Amino acid sequence: MTWTELRLRLRRLLMRQRAERDLQDEVDFHLAMAARAGWRAEASFGGTDRILEECRDLRRFGWLEDGWSDLVLALRRLRHAPLFAFAAVATLGLAIGANSAVFSIVDAVVLRPLPVSNPQQLVSLGDPGFSSLNSGEDDHQVGAPTFHQYQLLRDNSPEFSGVAAQLAEPWELQVAWGRQTGAEQVSATMVSGNFFSLLGLAPARGRFFDPGPDTPAVAPDVVLSYACWQDRFAGADRAIGQQLSVRGQVFTIIGVAPKGFFGTKVGQDPALYFPLGWQQALIPGRDMLHDPPGPSRFEWLNVVARLRPGVTLAQARLASDLIFHRTVVEQAASAPARARASLLTQTLPVTRITTGLSDVRAGAQRPLLILLGLAGLILAIVVVNLGGMTAAQAAGRRQEMGMRMALGASRGRLLRQLLTESLLVAAAGGGLGWLLGGFGAAALLNLLGGQAPVVLTTDWRVWGFLVAVCAAAALGFGLWPALRLSRLRPGRPVRGARQRLGRVTVVAQIAVALVLVMSAALFTRSLQQLRQVDIGFNPQHLVTFRTNAVAAGAAPGQALEIYRRLTAALAQAPGVTVAAHSENGLFIGFDSGNAVAPEGYTGPPEGANWDQVTPGYFAALGVPILLGRGFSPADAARKPAPVVIDAEFARRFFAGRSPIGQHITIHESRSDEVTEVIGVAGTIRQQSLRAKRRPRFYFDADDSDTDLAYGVTFELRVGHQPSLGQVQAVVAGVEPRLQVRDFQTVEGAINRSIAPSLVLAGLSGFFAGLALLMAAVGLYAMLSYAISRRRAEIGVRMALGAAPGRVRALFLREAATMVA
Amino acid sequence: MSFDSMISAPPPPAAGTRLALLQGTLDLLILRTLQNQARHGWSIMERIEELSHGLLQVNQGSIYPALHRLENQGWVRAGWRISELGRRARYYTLTPAGRRQLEAETSNWQRFSAAVGWILQEG
């Protein structure tokens, strides 16, 4: 097409009336000249209309103008069939909304690359799902490098253009903004000096940290997340230079992270970024910037590195392995003999993390994909349903199509028009679905685990999915009827096959609905099985909270005394029957473990989990003491230290003999501790309903040797649930500086731990119900249509003497055949 | 080259036989008639008939589509002027590109007709 032609076509498009008039004038002039010359012009001209049409065709944007008129026509048709339009758009909107909601979560958790520059170059040095503070001796694959190992990797790896670290788990800090006296609980993280520059980010305001060694000597600066900046300062420039304080230490705000950035881990969204060097001021109780001596390790960081261009993953692995192994060998040299062998098996995993680190991804991936499948099935049902409705409508349009064909429309033109109608409905459904999907995604995220703040954004993948689903839906329910309708020859009737089509669609819908019902039943059953797992204690009327005296400023020796007083005060509080505390709590994600060597056990050293509990712990939980006795005040400071083992421990290590009085050697980092068994308690599930049972034992928390740096969890058995305020009042009465955190019921915690299963069962049940409803409606519509068409036949049958019952039975039998 | 034979509509009173006109040739003839002055569609038609001594009469239904096609290609330019009737008419002018096209097509035609002539002469 030449430029001139394009110009002329556009001109016609934009000034249609004038172009029309020009053409008409030109032809009229010709006719006038012909008349003057005496010709019978009309006849010789061969039909003015055809010439006008031919000239028009030379200048049209055919597809554009045709498409527009198709659209207008489709709108008009829908206006005349409001019931169909409403039903179609509503059901499509729901189905597409469900798909879009689940997909946007799948996109955020599984598919989307990190919002940093060149995320495909990033690797994780350590397990990408590592998300806790871990102390102890690991063997085989470690969770994360220690701080010392991180520094070595950072300084000695030319394969990486940089190595940075972030705190593995966001920490809740009490932050006092500016000159305020009150403190607010804020989620914060700590990052190395080169963190932001390694990720290639530009600050939304201000600047980032100066790159340099991560020591306490770095400037006390802090970077805000974009959301925090908007919430707290309404996006004002004056935020830069403001100050905030944590536990008395003042930090200056120097910059704001870019919009949409949430760190390197999906499922976390900290509001503040502090420098690693200030760890002790922010998380007191342990110096994490210096590794403990001996074979023990302390892991508290996620370490990420950027590959230099041209470096392969294998090369990177080799290089980091070399450095890592050197440190391991150094450690092994000074470790006791028994630890040496297992130490030397340690390796550091290196994996690509284009989509970021995540501890939620592994657990969420399967349920999400299952949900996506279910939503897809619902969409299939809706599409089949609409297809049936469209086909039924098509029957009434045979005349219209026949006339169009007679007037010269090609088959392709008819097809285009019919498909435009389907596309219009699908687009409307898609628009509604997009709206619903937005709400649905947020609600679903809440259900699946509100503690993992996943940042949802609509990127090209989500849009693309929406458009693809709409197009697929439109083709799905529109193509088949359109093809059949456009294949008409004018004058030839369409018969027979439509009934079969109707039957097939209903059968298909019922089949899919039944699949959904079965899957809902399966999920519900697995949920029931989970719920029936014996947890070993009574979770009802059990309330827990965490508190940390050391973080509040007490010396470790004082902390024990404070907890003792607090236990006594809580036991007296109204509604509380028994009060106790433990180190690791219930279903909140903490646990401890060590290798143990029980007396008389000849197998290899095995690991066991343990907890430090007060004497009232077993009573508070409702765990029976099966043999021997629990702790008593007389046990304090007794040597060897008394332990209570659980039934699983006794079964595993003391099969066939009484464990009371036997000794257990516990292998700790620096030395071994010998303990004596004084009792056997029932087995409980402390962490998860699904995990395999591990043997467990308990120390007496009143023993002054305990390490209380991370605080304790209080367990209260209550008659009626106290409010947070009441508990805070009691705590403040004992020690005003103590904070009450994570106040919750144990039942709630258990439910949260099985949230994905709950959601799956619930949603699949909802989808199944919806599917059954739609299949039933489809069946009803088809039946009533079929019956109305066979009215004559029914009339004849009844005239010939058939009882109404028999006629009814005839149709019911047909319906039953379809369902079967 | 596609040959689209265009038989005249009911012939007006005129003598002589009519020859069928090929589509590609119509473009060439139109360009030729515009070589020296701007004309409107009716005038072009008259001129062709005149120059061919009455042997070629253009089917009136094909002129305007042909003219518009030529305009699309950029070989002619159209404008409104007041005609001899006193009302406005659309006059077509040859563009420089059109002149070059005319030359090219003329030489093509001459070679073509020479070739056909040789074939008919031989054997």
Tell me what the structure shows.
The complex is a heterodimer of chains A (820) and B (123). Chain A has 820 residues and is of the alpha+beta class. Chain A has 25 helices and 26 strands. In chain A, the strands form six sheets. In chain A, strands 4-5-11-7-9-8 form a six-stranded mixed barrel. Chain A has a six-stranded mixed barrel with strand order 18-19-24-21-23-22. A four-stranded antiparallel beta sheet of chain A has the order 3-13-1-14, with helices on one face. Chain A is globular and about 130 Å long. In chain A, 38% of the residues are buried. The mean pLDDT of chain A is 83. With 123 residues, chain B is of the alpha+beta class. In chain B, 50% of the residues lie in helices and 13% in strands. Chain B has helices at residues 23-33, 41-51, 60-73, 96-121; strands spanning 39-40, 76-82, 88-94. In chain B, strands 1-3-2 form a three-stranded antiparallel beta sheet. The chains are: A alpha+beta (820), B alpha+beta (123). At the A-B interface, helix 1, helix 2, helix 3 and helix 4 of A face helix 3 and strand 3 of B.
The shape of chain A, in one word, is globular
Q: What's the assembly state of these chains? A: heterodimer
Helix content of chain B: 40-55%
Individual helix count of chain B: 4
Span between N and C termini of chain A? Answer: 60 Å
Radius of gyration of chain B: 16 Å
The major sheet of chain B is characterized as: 3 strands, antiparallel
> Largest interface, by Cβ-Cβ below 8 angstroms: which chains and how many residues each?
A-B, 28 and 25 residues
The number of helical segments of chain A is 25
Number of strand segments of chain A: 26
Please tell me how large the radius of gyration of chain A is.
37 Å
Strand percentage of chain B lies at: 5-15%
Strand content of chain A: 15-25%
- Helix/strand order of chain B: HEHHEEH
What is the overall pLDDT average of chain B? 81
Mean pLDDT of chain A, nearest integer? Answer: 83
How are strands sequenced across the largest beta sheet of chain A? 4-5-11-7-9-8
| Uncertain spans of chain B | 1-17
Counting helices, strands and paired strands, the structural category of chain A is: alpha+beta
Low-confidence stretches of chain A: none
